[in-house]
Amino acid sequence: MNGRIKSGLALAAIGLVLVIYLLPIYWIVATSLKEYSDILARPPKFVFAPTLRNYVSLLLVPGEGLHATPFAARLLNSVIIASLSTIFAVAMGTMTAYAFSRFRTRGQGDWQFFILSTRMLPPVVVVIPIFLMYRALGLFDTHAGLIVLYTAFNVSFAVWLLKGFMDEIPKEYEEAALVDGYSRLQAFVRVVLPQAVAGIAATSVFCLITAWNEFAFALVLTQNTAQTAPPYIPSVVGSGATEWGRIAAGTVLFLLPVAVFTFVMRKHLLRGATFGALKR
Predict the structure, then answer these.
(1) What tens digit of pLDDT does each residue of 60-101 get?
(2) What is the CATH number of domain 63-279?
(3) Cβ–Cβ < 8 Å for 220, 131
(4) What is the pLDDT of residues 222-246, one digit of tens each?
(5) 130-165 in b/e burial notation, b at 16+ Cβ within 10 A?
(6) Rg of the Cα trace of the chain?
C-alpha cells in the first residue's frame, strides 16, 4: 500500500510540474487561435471557435504571397543565420576540442580559459563597441555580420562541451587506426567523429537554441535586411490596440523550427547525456 501511495504522489508531482511548464505554451497557442474579442474576454475563454486568421495575416498578404510579409522574411533570416552559425561553431568547436583533448601544448589551460572568457560578458556590455566596429567595417545589417558574431560566441561553448565528449573516447581506437596506416586526419574523420556523434548533436542543439533566441545583438546590429524574428515579434503591436493574437501566432511559428529540430535529435540528446556512463 505504501508503494502505491508513493507512486501516486510521484505521478501527481510529475503531473503538477508538467502543468506548470506546459500551461504557458498552451496559453500562447490558444491565444494565437482566438479572435480578438475572445482574447480580451473576462473571465478567459477555454472553449472557443479556433481561427487561423492571425497566422494568415502574418504569413500572407492578399495577392502577394508568403515572401511579401515582413515576418516571413525575418523568420527566414533566423533560419539562415542560426543554422549557418551553428554549423560553423560546431565544426570549429569539434576540431578545437579534439586538439585540446589529444595534444598537450604550452599554456593550454590559459588558452582554454581565454576561449571560455568570451562568454563571461553579457551581450549588452559589448554590443555598443561591436556596433561601432560593424558600422566601420560595413557589416551592419548584414547576414554575414550576425553569422560571424553568433559563431564567435557559440564556439567557446562548443569547445568546452565537446572536449568532455572527446576525453571519453578511448585513445586506443585512434592508435589502432594509426597502426593500420591511417593518417591523423583519417583517424579523426573515420574513428573519432562517429564516436562523437551524440556529443556533436547535443552541442548543435544548444548552439542553435542560443543563436535562435538571441535578441540584443539582433536588435542593435540589424535594421531591415538581416533582422531576425526575436526583435521583430514584439513590434507587432498594431496601430491602436495591441494585437496579441498576431504576437502569439508569431511566437508559435518561431518556436516550431527549434522544437522540431530538438525532437529529431532527441535520441542523440539522450545518448549525449549518458555518454560517459555508457563508455565506462
Answers:
(1) 776 555 556 888 889 999 999 999 999 999 999 999 888 888
(2) 1.10.3720.10
(3) yes
(4) 988 899 999 988 877 655 677 888 8
(5) beeebeeeebbbbbebbbbbbbebbbbbbbbbbbeb
(6) 23
